[in-house]
Amino acid sequence: MPPQALHANWTAAWHALGVTAPDDALRLELQRRYSEPQRHYHTMQHLGECLAWFDQEQALAERPGEVALALWFHDAIYDVHAHDNEARSADWARQALQAAGVNDAAADRVHALVMATRHDAVPEGRDAELLIDIDLSILGAERARFDEYERQVHLEYGFVAEEIRLPRRRAILQRFLDRPAIYATPRMHALLEARARENLQWSIAG
C-alpha cells in the first residue's frame, strides 16, 4: 500500500472515532515495528494487504474506525519467542486510543478485536468477523502469494528444528481446514474459501 494510502487510512480511522489522529510519531513507530528484522511475514506487506482488504470491505463493519485501528495494531508487537504478542499489542492499542481522547468503551472494543487475532475462538460480532477474515485473507491468496507466505512464516520460525516446525505448522493449518467455514463474511467467503482450502491442502500434503 503506498505511503499516501497508509496515511489516509490512518487519519480516517481516528476521525471515525471522533478524534484527531495523533501526530505522525505513533504511525511511524508502528511502521517501524512492522519493519523489524525478525519479521518476514508479519511485515508492512502484511499490514498493507490487510488495510487494502479493509478499504474494499469496510462497509461491512459496524464501527469501521475501530476495525481499521485494530488492524494497525494487531501485529504491532511481534516477538517470535513470546506467547503474549496479541495481549501486548492489544494493550498498546488501548493505551494509544485513550491517550488520543477515545472513550474507554471504544478503546476496550479495539483491545478485544486485537485479542481476537489469536484465532483460538470463533469471532463474535460483525467487526470481529471482518477483522479475522481480513487477517486470514492470505490463506485464500493466489498460489504464488500463498507459497511466498509459507516461506516467510518458515523464515520467522527458522530457529525451530525442521522436524518440529513442519509438523506443528501442518497441525495449525489443519485446524483452519477443519473449520466448517474459514471465512465468516459472505463476500470474503465467496471470494476466498475455496482457494484457501486448496492452498491449505496443498501445504499440508507438501
Automatic annotation (TrEMBL):
The lineage of its organism: Bacteria, Pseudomonadati, Pseudomonadota, Betaproteobacteria, Burkholderiales. InterPro entries: HD_phosphohydro. This is N-methyl-D-aspartate receptor NMDAR2C subunit. SUPFAM superfamilies: HD-domain/PDEase-like. It comes from Acidovorax cavernicola. PANTHER family: HD PHOSPHOHYDROLASE FAMILY PROTEIN-RELATED (PTHR21174:SF0), PTHR21174. Keywords: Receptor. It comes from the Bacteria.
